[in-house]
Every structure is written in C-alpha cells, then in structure tokens.
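Posting this for the archive.
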Amino acid sequence: MLETSDISDESSRINLPLGNTFIRFSPLTMWRAGSKPRAVLLLWLALCVIIIPSGILTRVFEWTGIAVDLGTTSIYLTIYIPMLFCVPLVVWFGFLWAAIPAYFSTFCVALFGGMPIEWIVVFAFSNPIGLAMYAMFYRTTPISKDLNNLESLVGFFMIALVASLAGSIGAFIWALTNNVGLNVAYPVWLGWWFGGWLQSCLIVAPILYFFGPAVQRQLAEVKNSSLKLNNAKGSIIAMISGFIIVVLCFVGAGRYISLQQMASIDWASGQTMSLMQAQNTVDSLSYPLFILLAVILALSYLGYRAMISWYDTIKGVNQKLSEKNKQLINLVSLDPLSGLYNRRKVFEQLECEYNRSLRSQGTLSIIMVDVDKFKRVNDTYGHLVGDTVIKAIADTIQVTLRDYDTLGRFGGEEFIAILPSTSCQQAQIIAERVRAAVSKLEVVLDNTSQVLQVTVSLGVATLASTDSKAESIIDRADKALLQAKENGRNQVVFGGDQTNSTL
C-alpha cells in the first residue's frame, strides 16, 4: 500500500545527475560500513595528512604576493598548495570534506607565521569561505563538474573567480594583525585572489577535466543522489547572497585602499608620490571596475542557471506529485484485484449519471452481474484460482461493454455496469451479450491442462419516472439478479415494468 508519508518524502526530493552528487560527511558511518565507504574515508584522511602541512611551504618559500612585471604595470600572485587539493575535494566529495583540511592548513600557516591565536581561529575560515562558493554553485545548478563542455568550463572559471575573491578576506586579517601598511597589504590581497584564481583555471580545471569522470564513477557507491527541495532553495538563496556580499566587500576594499593611498600623501608639503604608491592607487581604482564587471557577469550567469535548475526542480517535483496523486486516486477509486472501479466510486458515477439523466430526461440502465457457484470454485481450486476467475470475467465484461459504459466491482464475485442513455431493451441486449461472452470464457489453470468454465447471472433495471434516488435502480437490478439465480442461473432477468422504464 502506498503511504502518504512516502509521498511527501519522495516528492520533496529530486534525483541529481551522478556528476552533481555529493558524499554525506559521516565518517563513523562510513567506517562501520566498510568496503568502498571505508576506503574513501581512508583516502580522505591520507589527503588531509598531505594538505594540512603543505600550506607552510607558502611561508617558507615566500610565495605570497610575488610580483610579475607586465610592462608598465605589475600583478601579484600567491602560490598556495592546499587549494590545489581542496578545490577538487569540494567538487568531487562535498563542502566539509574540503573545508576541514583547508581550515587546519590555514590555521597552521598562521600559527607558523606568529599570528595571535584569537585571530588565527578567525583567519583560518578564509579559504573555507571560498570553498563554500564552489559547493553552493554545484549544489544549485545542473552544470557538470567534469568540465566536459564549454558551459561547464565557463561556469567553473566564473565560480573560481568569486570563490577566490571571497577567500581573499584573509589578506585583510593578515595585514591587520601584522600591522603592515597598504603598500604591503595590497600585493598580498591581490596575490591571494588573483593567484588563487589562476591556480584554479590553469591547474585544477585540467585535473577536473581529465580525472573527473573516473573519480565520479569510483565514488558513485557512496554518494547521496537525492537533494531535498527546501534545501535546494536555501542553497540558491545562500549562493546569490554570498555572491552579492563578495561583490560589495570587493568594491568596498578597492575603494578603501585607494582612499587610504590618496590620504597618505601630504599635498600641502608638496610630497611626491612614490612609484609604488601611484601604481597601487591607480590599480586599486581600476581593478575593482574590471573585476566588478566580471563578477556581475558571473552572478548573472550563475543566477540564471540556478533559477533554471530551480524551475526544473519544481517541474520535476510537480510531475512526481501528479504521479503520486494519480496513485492516490487509483488507490481510493479502483479495486486492486480486477482493476475496475470499487463500490464507492461506482456509487459516485451512478449519482452523476442519475442527475444527468434527470436534467436531460434521458434513459439510464444498470446491469448487476454475479458469478454462478463461485464458492464452489474457491472451495475446489483455492482462492488464488478464484482471483484469476474474477480478473478474467472482469476483463471479458469490460471489452463487451461500450466505451462510455462504466463497470465496477460491487463486492466479492458481483459486478455492476452503468449504461448511460440506454433503454431497457438495449440494456437487455447488452446483458445477453455479456452473458454469452462469459459462458464462452475458458480459464486455464496454472501448471495444468485443465480448463475451467464459468457462467454468470444478470439482473437489468432501467431508470423509471417514479425513482426518487439512484439507489432505486440498483435495488430493482439486484432483485432481478436474485430472480435469475432462482430461475436456474446463466440467464438475464429484467427488473421492473418495461412500459414505465423511460422518463
């Protein structure tokens, strides 16, 4: 039987493509499960051992804010090894799988650099914030993670830019705790997000392209392939909100840096700006304009894809709800054995036809059908054979009636047919046709060559001018059926006065 709780739970979930599914973060459960889940957990722990201390290389080799001259200007890059591992982790595994090693790696870097512990706790969240952008993007859009088409590649480059900008908030915390000036903080900040973006585009993207399909197949057994509708909606809202916050912070940071650079000049004394001050001032004013444009384009595109995905999600859920509603309707309207209308639905149909006949002053007839000596069939061959006989008779009657007639199972071995716009003479002809068809029916017993033949008795009644309710027709048809039984079975009997059987 179909439970309503199952309907509610299933209809609130959507199945995601393999590439856009994630591994639920439940280490203890995966360890107890053994086999593939345990192997995946051990692989992640091994990666954590590599990722967490690798961030210290950035401090040891001074890979922060490396200047790259481009003619009249310079760009700054930061090389940070942990993100080369963490970005694929967040894409293939999920947010927490990547955020945990990213947090502790950043924590170790800050600790190694002598940052106060109270600031380290906050500073370590910078890279997980960037990784959250990846997680929300792939959770709310149908864009492939394997970068196997232009749309997925462009989408990855855009989300990598937003993620790098979001994570670069750590540069300001670093500058604050180390009491460095803007001339030092600016290259660190620029190198953080620009270097992170280039790492993702030039190194991580090829990794996802070449290894993504194979990794996804290996992880398929341990992935959670369904997503709750309300969770999907929350992820979309969180993603868009996060992008807006990143844009505002980035523009605000650029303006703050430019104002501070300008304020540091003593115009009254005629102080001349240093080359670095001038360059940083110009760059801090121009970079936000270009990056803001890129982020707006990214936000527009990703928001569009998220909304399309949300629309498809709602469409899919509505389709599921429609299917479940049909199942519920069938559950309360159909007889499970014969597939015909059940007694309750038959009475609803009869009431509708009765009222319509009264309005149009038309005719309406009823045929009651009962299987002869059905108890003997059950007692001799068993109830399973009896069920087969009921189903075979139901199918035979159904094909014998007209398309607009209604057939239902009245109870046990008894059936009822509602014949709209049918006179008593026509109803008797149809009933005789049904009787003859059933009498020729042969039910072959399973695993035997024995053939079982059955007959039916039928009672016919037609709407009369004296009928005050629809049940009156059933009552006359039922009495006619009893008369057919008493007369020897396998026959049709009409109940009522034929001269008073039309309105």
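The longest strand covers residues 364-371. Residues 271 and 434 are 110 Å apart (CA to CA).
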